[in-house]
Specification:
Length: 581
C-alpha cells in the first residue's frame, strides 16, 4: 500500500521526450505507400532517393528524433538503417507503425538479440534492435518489454528516456538511505540494484521514486533470487524515505528464510549470530554458507547429539566430519524445502560432487575460524569468542582426492547452434556490445573472444599465451594437455595444425591444442590487429590478457547466445566437433 506521504506529494512536472501526439498519425496516402515501395529498392543518396525521402518525411521524422535522442546526432549510417528497416516492416504488415500492437512490436524485436539477427539477416546489429525497442516504448507506447530482454539495456534506456541527471538523482537518494542501513555492497551489487530500479522506472513510465507502488515492486520482484534480493533492497530504501507505509507486523526474516528443524537450538542460534555479522560476503554467498552450516547441525544431531554448539568441537570431531562429509549424498541433511527442490530436479540422494564437498569444508573452516577471532552475542547473552583445541584451517582441509577431482576438467559438449552463435558473435564483436568500463582497444577484446571460443581455454591459460602462439607446422613430438601425441589431420590445402601453445615454466607444462585451419587464419589476423606493428610481446600480452577484460568479452558474447550463462571455463568440444565448426 502506498503511504500517505506519497499520496499527498504534489505531482511532479515531467513528460516523455518524444510523444506520439506531437506527430501527424493520419493514414498514409496512396502516394506515400507508393514512395515506400519504391524507396526500398533505390539508393538513399541518389537523386530519386532524395526526392522519395521528402515524400516520406512524415514517416521518417519520428524515427530520426529517436536516433537523435539516443545518439545526440542525426549523422551516421544507422539512422538510414532504421528508416529502411521500419519501411520494410510497414510494407510487410501493411499498416503504419503507429497502428502496431504490442505483439507486433515484440514479434519484430524477437525474444533475444541473437534471434533478431537471425530472423532479419543481420550480424551483430544490436544497435539497430535497441532503436527499434526505443520506437516500441516511445512511439508504440509499449511499456513492458521484458519479454524481449529489455533488461539488457535497462540503465541506458532509462537514462535516454528520462535523462541521465534525473535518473542519477533518484539513484543517489536510494543509495544514501541504503548506506544508512549499513549496506556496503560492491560496485557489481550496486549496479544490480540500479538495473532493477531502472526497470521499475521504465515499467512505470516515470523516473520518480514517489511513483513506485508496492504492487509493482512485488510483480517485478518475483522470480529469481537476484530479483528478490534487489527488490528487498529497493523496498527497504522506499520505507526509509517514507514513500511506502511500513509493514504492520515485522517478521523475523531469519526464522522464515532458514529452517531450524533437526538440529540443536544452540547450533541454530550461533549460526544466525554469525550470519548477521558476516557482511564481507555478498548476500547469496552468505546464505549458501548458512545453509551448509545448518546441514552440519543436522548431521551433529544424528551422529553426536551431545554436541550442541560450536565451542564443543574437538579435533577428533572435526576429523570425523572431514571423513564423513565425503560420503554424503545430495540433500541428506538439507532442509525440507531444499530436499523438495532437489527432488524436482531429480538430484536427491545422488552422491555429492567434489565441489559440494569442498564447499562444506570451506564453510566450516570459515565459520569456526570467525567464531574464534570475533565475539558473538547469542540469545541475548554477552558477546564472547569460542576456544578450540585445533586450527580449523589445518584440520578441515580438502582431501587430496577431492582437490584432484576439482582440478581435473570434466566439461560437456555444448549445442552446435549455440557454439556457432558464440563464434559469429566473437568475430563481429562491436564497441556497443562491450560494457562502458572497457579500457582496452576493441581489437583486443575481439582477439580475446575469438581465442576463448576457438581454443576453449581458461582465463589463466589464455593469459599465458604468447602473441605468436599459433603454429602451422605439425611435429611428431607435439603432446596435448593429457600428454598424448597430437594427431596429424589434414582437411584442406591450408595448414590445419594451428596449435596455441603456452610458455613452459616450472609450474606450467607445454602442450598443444588442435584447431581448424580456417579458425587459425581468422585468429591470427585478429591477434595481429591487437598491435599494428606486431610488437606486443609475451610480457605485454600477459599484463593485459587477464580475467577482467576476458570477463567483459564473455559478458558481451553471452548476450548474443540467448542468455546462456558461461564462465571463464567454456564447455570444451570434442575434437571431431571442433573440426566441424
Amino acid at each position: 500500500m502506498t503511504s500517505q506521504a506519497q499520496r499527498t506529494q504534489p505531482a511532479l512536472r515531467w513528460q516523455m521526450p518524444i510523444l506520439p501526439d506531437h506527430y501527424d498519425r493520419s493514414t498514409l496516402s496512396p502516394e506515400e505507400w507508393l514512395a515506400l515501395e519504391q524507396y526500398t529498392t533505390i539508393r538513399a543518396d541518389s537523386r530519386r532517393g532524395q526526392e522519395l525521402q521528402k515524400q516520406l518525411a512524415r514517416f521518417n521524422q519520428p524515427l530520426t528524433d529517436l536516433y537523435l535522442l539516443r545518439y545526440q546526432s542525426i549523422e551516421g549510417q544507422l539512422r538510414t538503417d532504421v528508416h529502411r528497416f521500419m519501411q520494410r516492416q510497414v510494407l510487410r504488415l501493411r499498416k503504419m507503425y503507429w497502428e502496431w500492437s504490442a505483439q507486433d512490436w515484440k514479434e519484430i524485436l524477437c525474444p533475444t538479440p541473437a534471434q533478431f539477427n537471425v530472423r532479419h539477416a543481420r550480424l551483430n546489429m544490436n544497435s539497430l534492435r535497441v532503436l527499434i525497442m526505443d520506437a516500441a516504448y516511445l512511439l508504440g507506447e509499449v511499456s513492458d518489454l521484458r519479454d524481449v530482454k529489455m533488461g539488457l539495456h535497462g540503465i541506458e534506456s532509462a537514462q535516454t528516456y528520462f535523462g541521465a541527471e534525473l535518473v542519477d538523482e533518484q539513484w543517489n537518494r536510494m543509495l544514501s538511505v541504503l548506506a544508512g542501513r549499513g549496506y556496503g555492497e560492491s560496485r557489481g551489487s550496486s549496479k544490480r540494484i540500479l538495473q532493477h530500479l531502472c526497470i521499475l522506472f521504465l515499467l512505470n513510465r516515470s523516473p520518480y521514486l514517489e511513483d513506485l507502488t508496492e504492487e509493482l515492486l512485488i510483480e517485478v520482484g518475483t522470480g529469481s533470487r537476484a530479483k528478490q534480493w534487489s527488490q528487498r533492497k529497493i523496498t527497504n530504501g522506499l520505507y526509509d524515505l517514507g514513500l511506502l507505509a511500513p509493514q504492520e507486523e515485522e517478521t523475523d526474516p531469519l526464522s522464515t528464510q532458514f529452517d531450524p528443524e533437526g538440529m540443536a537450538p544452540e547450533w541454530f542460534a550461533w549460526c544466525m549470530a554469525w550470519y548477521e555479522r558476516a557482511v564481507d560476503f555478498t548476500l547469496l554467498v552468505r546464505q549458501g554458507y548458512v545453509h551448509r552450516i545448518l546441514a552440519v547441525g543436522r548431521w551433529l544431531q544424528e551422529r553426536f547429539p551431545d554436541i550442541r554448539e560450536p565451542s564443543q568441537w574437538t579435533e577428533e570431531l572435526a576429523l570425523c566430519f572431514r571423513s564423513d562429509v565425503c560420503s554424503w549424498t545430495a540433500g541428506q541433511y538439507g532442509s525440507h524445502r531444499g530436499r523438495q527442490t532437489l527432488t524436482t530436479k531429480g538430484m536427491l540422494g545422488q552422491p555429492m560432487r567434489s565441489y559440494g564437498i569442498a564447499h562444506y569444508l570451506t564453510s566450516m573452516r570459515r565459520y569456526l575460524t570467525d567464531l574464534t577471532k570475533r565475539p558473538y552475542a547469542v540469545k541475548g547473552e554477552p558477546a564472547r569468542r569460542i576456544s578450540l583445541d585445533f586450527v580449523p584451517k589445518e584440520v578441515l582441509t580438502t582431501p587430496a582426492p577431492i582437490r584432484k577431482a576439482l582440478d581435473a576438467a570434466s566439461p560437456r559438449d555444448i549445442d552446435v547452434q549455440v557454439w556457432a552463435k558464440l563464434a559469429i558473435a566473437a568475430a563481429t564483436l562491436s564497441a556497443q556490445d562491450l560494457p562502458r568500463t572497457t579500457r582496452y582497444p576493441l581489437s583486443f577484446y575481439r582477439a580475446l573472444a575469438l581465442v576463448w571460443v576457438t581454443s576453449a581455454r581458461r582465463p589463466n591459460e589464455i593469459a599465458r599465451l604468447r602473441l605468436d602462439c599459433l603454429r602451422e607446422e605439425w611435429a611428431a613430438d607435439m603432446l596435448d594437455e593429457d600428454g598424448q601425441p597430437v594427431e596429424n589431420v589434414t582437411l584442406s590445402s591450408e595448414p590445419s595444425h594451428a596449435l596455441p601453445n603456452a610458455p613452459e615454466s616450472r609450474s606450467v607444462k607445454l602442450f598443444y591444442l588442435q584447431i581448424p585451419a580456417g579458425k587459425n587464419r581468422v585468429m591470427r589476423d585478429k591477434l595481429r590487429k591487437v598491435n599494428p606493428q606486431n610488437n606486443l610481446g609475451h610480457s605485454a600480452w600477459h599484463q593485459t590478457a587477464t580475467t577482467r577484460p576476458l570477463t567483459s568479452a564473455i559478458t558481451a558474447l553471452r548476450a548474443e547466445s540467448e542468455g546462456e550463462r558461461y564462465t571463464g571455463v567454456l564447455y570444451r568440444p570434442t575434437l571431431a566437433f571442433a573440426l566441424r565448426v
